[in-house]
Design a protein that fits this description.
A 9-stranded antiparallel β-sheet has the order 34-35-36-39-48-41-42-43-44, with no helix packed on it. Strands 33, 37, 38, 40, 45, 46, 47 and 49 form an 8-stranded antiparallel β-sheet that branches. The radius of gyration is 27 Å and the shape is elongated. The protein has 587 residues and is an all-beta fold. Strand 16 and strand 17 (184-189) form a beta hairpin. It is built from no helices and 49 strands. The protein is 0% helix and 45% strand.
Length: 587
C-alpha cells in the first residue's frame, strides 16, 4: 500500500497488443513518431502466421502493428538503436548493413533504410547508444575508433559524423547502458573506475561536452548495471548480481527506493510514473534479502520476467508473465504512442504466443489527461524496500533515509502486509533494563520542520491489547523541552491514539486524543492534522478527537524524525506493535 493512500498511476494492459513476432532475439527498440524500430539477432518477422524476411532490423506501425517496408538488413546482430528524429543509428556486431560496409556503427535513413555517410572502424563491441545535444554517444567494450584509443566510450557529431575528439571519458570495464538527462551522460556497466578515479563504479555521470566526471554523483550500486532510464525525478538502474535489483536514485545519487527479484533485471523503462522492469527473474522478493542463486529468503510474489513498480517503490499488480530462460533483454516506452515495448527471448506473454517482442498499451494514453502530480509528501515510508539492512528508503524522493538503531538485541523485523511488508517492533518484557529497544530515525532536515504551517502526518498500525503499555510513541519529531514537537502516540493500556504538538518556545502540550481504542489486533490508519488553530486525530479516516492550538504555535527542532520510541534509553516509550505506510505532508 502506498503511504498516505496516494493514488497509484494506471498501469498498461497486461495483454500484449497486436504486433509482429520474430524468429530470433530482440536486443534493441527505438521510436520515431508512430513507428517502432527493432534490432536483434532475428532473420524473419512473423505477421499473422506469415514469415517475412527482416535481417536483424525491422520497423512497424506502433498503433496497428502493421509491418513496414523498411528493410536495410544487417549481416550480424544489432545490439543498440537510437535516433535524433532524422537518422536512425544502429550499433552491434555487423560489418555490412543496408548493403554497405559499416563496422559496428551506422546511420540509416528512417524511411528508406539507406546508410548515411557515417562510417568508422570500431575496435570492440558496442552495447549502447544515446543521442543528445548534437552528439551520438556510444558505450560498450571498445578500445579504439579509427585507430584512436578509446576506453569503452566514444561520441560522434550528428552533423558531420566525425569522432568527437574532445569527449573521451574512460572506464576500466564494459559499459552496458547510457542515458542522457540533467545535462549529464549517465553510464552503467561492469566498471569500477571512471576516468581512472577509484570507487566510481557501475553507475556514474560525466559531462556531455567535456567528459569530465561528476564527482558528486556516487550511487555505487552493489552489482553490474544492465540498463538505465531517467525521468524528471532522477535515474533508474537495472542490476544483476545475486538475484537482481531495481533502484531509483535522485540526480544527486541518493537512493529513493530498491526492489529485489530472484534473477537479473536486464531492462527497464519509466512510463506514466511507474517503472517497468524485465529480466530472467521469476519472483519479486518481499524484502531486500536473497540467498544462494538469488532465492528470496523472506518470501516472494510471482513475477515471471516482467513486473511494474510505482513511484514509491511498491510492487504493482501488473504481471503479464512471460517465459524463457533469458526472458527480457530490452524495454522502452513512448508517451506519444502510449505503449511500453519489450524485447528479448520469450515466446509467450500472458498465455498468448508473442515471440520476442511485445507491446503493452496504456488504456488512457490515447486520450490522455494531465500528468500525475508530484509527491505531496516531504517523507514517506512503506518499508517495502531498503538501501541496506536496517535502512529504509524515503518514497517521497526527498532522500530522508530511515535508519534502525537498537539495543539489547532488538531488530527491525519485517513482516508481510498486503502486497508489501511492515515493521514489527520489539515485544514487551518484564525487566526494563534488558528489554529490546528499537528506534527508526531520519536525520534532521529543514523541510521536516513545519514551523507554523499546516501539517498532516500519519501511519498504518496494528496493536493488540497485550502490546499496550503506559505510553508508546509511533512517530515524532522533537521534544516538548526544546524546539517544539509533533507526535503520534498510543496512550496507556486502553490503546487510544493521540496527536501531540508543542511550541518551540513553550513546554505546554496540546493533545488531540481519540475516544476510540485501536488495540484490537487489526490494522488501522491514523492521521494527525493541524490546520490553523485546529489539531485533530483521525482513525480510519474518521475524526475521533480534537484540540485547539495557539495560532503562533511553531515547531522548528533540530531533533531527528523518530519512529517507535523517543530514543534508546530505558524509558523510551517503546512502541510494541506493527507499523507501515508512514507519511508526512507540510503546507
Amino acid at each position: 500500500m502506498a503511504a498516505g493512500s496516494v493514488a497509484i498511476a494506471a498501469v498498461v494492459d497486461s495483454t500484449p497488443s497486436t504486433s509482429p513476432s520474430f524468429n530470433g532475439s530482440v536486443f534493441a527498440i527505438a521510436y520515431r513518431g508512430d513507428t517502432v524500430y527493432v534490432g536483434g539477432a532475428f532473420t524473419k518477422a512473423v505477421v499473422a502466421g506469415k514469415a517475412v524476411v527482416r535481417n536483424r532490423l525491422a520497423a512497424f506501425d506502433g498503433r496497428t502493428g502493421a509491418l513496414l517496408p523498411w528493410n536495410p538488413g544487417a549481416d550480424k546482430t544489432v545490439r543498440a538503436l537510437a535516433t535524433d528524429g532524422t537518422i536512425m543509428y544502429a550499433a552491434g556486431d555487423f560489418g555490412v548493413i543496408g548493403g554497405q560496409n559499416r563496422d559496428s556503427l551506422a546511420g540509416l535513413d528512417p524511411t528508406t533504410g539507406v546508410p548515411t555517410a557515417l562510417k568508422h572502424g570500431i575496435l570492440g563491441q558496442p552495447n549502447a547508444l544515446a543521442v543528445a545535444g548534437g552528439r551520438l554517444y556510444m558505450g560498450g567494450r571498445i578500445t579504439g575508433v579509427d585507430g584512436v584509443a578509446r576506453a569503452n566510450l566514444a561520441a560522434f557529431s550528428t552533423a558531420t559524423g566525425a569522432l568527437d575528439t574532445g569527449w573521451a571519458p574512460t572506464t576500466d570495464d564494459a559499459v552496458n547502458a547510457l542515458a542522457v538527462a540533467n545535462n549529464k551522460v549517465y553510464l552503467g556497466g561492469r566498471f569500477h573506475r571512471t576516468n581512472n578515479v577509484p570507487s566510481t563504479l557501475r553507475l556514474t555521470a560525466v559531462d556531455p561536452v567535456t567528459g569530465v566526471l561528476d564527482a558528486a554523483f556516487k550511487p555505487k550500486p552493489v552489482s553490474q548495471v544492465f540498463a538505465l532510464a531517467t525521468d524528471a525525478t532522477g535515474v533508474y538502474a537495472a542490476l544483476g548480481g545475486k538475484g537482481g535489483r531495481t533502484l531509483a536514485y535522485t540526480f544527486a545519487g541518493a537512493t529513493r527506493w530498491t526492489r529485489v527479484f530472484d534473477g537479473d533485471i536486464q531492462a527497464l523503462t519509466v512510463f506514466g510514473g511507474n517503472t517497468y522492469v524485465g529480466g530472467h527473474f521469476d519472483n519479486a522478493c518481499t524484502t531486500t534479502n536473497n540467498g544462494a542463486q538469488g532465492v528470496c529468503t523472506d518470501g516472494s510474489i510471482p513475477r515471471v520476467k516482467l513486473a511494474a513498480i510505482d513511484g514509491q517503490g511498491n510492487l504493482l499488480p501488473w504481471a503479464p508473465q512471460a517465459n524463457g530462460v533469458v526472458g527480457v533483454r530490452v524495454m522502452t516506452s513512448s508517451e506519444g504512442l502510449g505503449i511500453v515495448s519489450v524485447g528479448g527471448d520469450f515466446t509467450l506473454v500472458n498465455g498468448i504466443t508473442q515471440k520476442r517482442y511485445a507491446a503493452f498499451v496504456d488504456p488512457t494514453a490515447r486520450s490522455a489527461g494531465p500528468p500525475a502530480p508530484p509527491s505531496p509528501f516531504v517523507a514517506s515510508y512503506n518499508f517495502d524496500s531498503t538501501v541496506a539492512d536496517g535502512t529504509f528508503d524515503d518514497g517521497s524522493g526527498n532522500g530522508h533515509l530511515l535508519k534502525a538503531f537498537a539495543t539489547n538485541g532488538a531488530k527491525a523485523t519485517l513482516v508481510a502486509h498486503g502486497t508489501g511488508q511492515a515493521v514489527l517492533f520489539p515485544p514487551k518484557c518484564a525487566v526494563a533494563a534488558t528489554c529490546g529497544r528499537l528506534n527508526l530515525q531520519a536525520a534532521d532536515s529543514a523541510d521536516l520542520n513545519p514551523g507554523t504551517r499546516n501539517l498532516r502526518f500519519g501511519a498504518a498500525v496494528r496493536l493488540s491489547a497485550t502490546e499496550t503499555s503506559s505510553g508508546e510513541n509511533i512517530v515524532q519529531k522533537g521534544y516538548s523541552t526544546s524546539g517544539g514537537q509533533y507526535k503520534l502516540q498510543v496512550d496507556g493500556a486502553s490503546g487510544k491514539p493521540s496527536c501531540v504538538m508543542s511550541d518551540q518556545n513553550s513546554t505546554t502540550l496540546y493533545v488531540a486524543k481519540s475516544a476510540l481504542s485501536i488495540s484490537d489486533g487489526g490494522w488501522h490508519t491514523l492521521e494527525c492534522r493541524r490546520v490553523g488553530t485546529s489539531l485533530t486525530i483521525r482513525v480510519d479516516d474518521v475524526q475521533r478527537g480534537a484540540a485547539i492550538l495557539p495560532v503562533t504555535l511553531s515547531v522548528v527542532t533540530t531533533q531527528p524524525l523518530r519512529m517507535g520510541g523517543k530514543g534508546l534509553a530505558v524509558n523510551n516509550d517503546q512502541y510494541h506493535g506493527y507499523l507501515d505506510d508512514v507519511w508526512i505532508s507540510i503546507g
